[in-house]
Amino acid sequence: MIKQPAPPDIAPPPLRNDCFALPAGVNWTPVNEALALLRERLRPVKAAISMRSVRAFGDILATDVVAARSNPPQPNSAVDGYGFAGAIPEGAHVFPLAEGRAAAGVPFNGTVPAGQAIRVLTGAALPAGVNTVILEEDVNVRDGHIAFHGPLKLRANTRQAGEDVKAGDLVLPAGRRLTSADIGLLAAVGVAEVNVYAPLRVAVMSTGDELVSPGEPAGLGQIFDANRPMLLSLVEQMGFEPVDLGRVGDDPDVLRARLDKAAEQADVILTSGGASAGDEDHVSGLLRQAGAMQQWRIALKPGRPLALGMWNGAPVFGLPGNPVAALVCTLIFARPALSLMAGAGWQMPLGFDLPAAFEKRKKPGRREYLRARVRDGRVEAFHSEGSGRISGLSWSEGLVEIEDGARHIAPGDPVRFIPYSSFNL
Fold it and tell me: Which residues 6+ apart lie within 8 Å of 376 measured at CB?
């Protein structure tokens, strides 16, 4: 068995404070340009660690994995039957049976002479002298002989050594998030340890005096904090480690201390609210004071303001406060960025063209995302596009993406539907 080498004791360099800076003269940023800038300027921020393969579900490979052993390791039978040297021509055939049998885990140690057959069971290593197997249902057995009809092709009903994977083959590439099937594959090819990235820790906090937690009394003008529990669960569903930093009122000193704590406990910080340029938008204000703030005015609906910056070495994604805009910006921008920083590479969601069950007129200039679901093969859109209509997030099963230009969508026209499952949700 080949043991994977331990990764070096080395961590990646920190991201630069100007990694979110827009090119000179850019004010409104199209979605594709914003995504390209994030992809170009971000990189993995976690060090590699060694992990037992059986415990590595959901982890991200830091190095390629090669097979330590072939699968199957030797030729074996795919059925219960009788083995002999093939191929067999057309016609009736009678072979004497050799003494013994071959079973999975209990191989036959001798050699089967030419012109003789031996009993073999599914998964058994083929004995020397055997390269073809006939199903037991196609055989009559009497007085130590078998009788059957040909023809039978050479190697019929057998599996060849390494026909799935050969020792030394690349089985899983660096950057892959390990699934249950991957864990089984690693076990089958004898890989006991893998090098993976340490889990990406993502801190989440909500800001605003108007927020109270569910279960607390809500006064006049106050609302329950929906973004933080939503974003924490999103982070976990996407395969990262959530860090709950609670909610912060509109007090810059308290927010500064909370950001300090977040940078100590997490690799990336997601905030909701306070990302614009108003009097109480303290997230953007503090990032601007720190000299590492970029206000990206994304040509996007919902979710135009997106504050990006660095706080004590940790990237900060300042999301809009409206729940729908916060979720859309997380899925479209934060998710691929977090995936890249975690070591899994830049991942874009898979969409499908389906006929619309709605009508929509859209002006040029901004890309739009509608909450949507599929019924009877057609895409339904939520009845309202308001960013505060959080019930539409629960109602929907994905997003309809409408391109940047003008568009008149009539019932039956094709639209791009992106199911939430494409975001690992």
Answer: none
User: Tokens representing 225?
Assistant: 């904090």
Cβ-contact 228, 205 below 8 angstroms: yes
Q: Render 280-315 in DSSP notation, one character per residue.
A: T-HHHHHHHHTT-EEEEEESEES--EEEEEEETTEE
What gap in Å lies between CA 395 and CA 419, rounded to an integer? 13
C-beta separation of 317 from 266 below 8 A: no
pTM of the predicted model as reported, rounded to 2 decimal places? 0.84
CA distances from 272 to 203, 324, 329, 332, 404 (A): 11, 11, 10, 15, 25
Q: Which residues pair with 101 in a beta bridge?
A: 119
Alpha helix stretches (DSSP H) within 275-398: 282-289, 323-329, 335-342, 391-395
Tens place of pLDDT per residue across the chain (425 aa): 455 566 666 667 777 665 555 555 556 788 898 899 889 888 999 999 999 999 999 999 999 999 999 999 999 999 999 999 989 999 999 999 999 999 999 999 999 999 999 999 999 999 999 999 999 999 999 999 999 999 999 999 999 999 999 999 999 999 999 999 999 999 999 999 999 999 999 999 998 888 888 888 888 888 999 999 999 999 999 999 999 999 998 888 898 999 999 999 999 999 988 655 555 566 777 777 765 656 677 888 987 777 888 888 898 898 988 899 999 999 999 999 999 999 999 999 999 999 999 999 999 988 999 999 999 999 999 999 888 899 999 999 999 999 999 999 999 999 999 999 999 88
Q: How many other CB atoms are found less than 10 A from the CB of residue 147?
A: 12
298: which strand partners?
29
